[in-house]
Please model this.
Amino acid sequence: MKERRDVGLDMSKLSSIMIVGCPDSDVNNIMHGLEAKRVKRCSSGEEAINELDRIQPDIIFMDVVLEGMTGLEATRWIKEHQPDVKIIMVSRKLNRAIMETGMEVGVDGYLEVDACQHIITKAAQTVLSGQSWFAYALSYLSWKDSYSLAS
Model:
């Protein structure tokens, strides 16, 4: 396993990004503010696992819904074998159960795949600096729960 670089808040130090299972429009949104020498797109969790040693990504954006194994299953495997890899779980819609399961398997962050670029960049910076990124999702889900109770 390679030694992890300290990317921190300097996104220009990214060597590689892996994006798993996201359609083209979402990949474009994710990549808009991120700079990396190499971007590897994988269509499945199995492909991501097979490419992990070769690509050695600084960060992985992992879709929840994938062909074959789910994004959560792929994340569990990756974190068991390479715990230092940073993974942000992305989904079409924020869901408390998915977020909680993601936290259990080692996800470093969770956000909607079509979040604004500022949020995606901030999430990447945060997890690359060793912190987690769940505040945005927790705030939204708490608001949603409060709103549904008030109705």
Remarks:
- DSSP finds six helices and five strands in the chain.
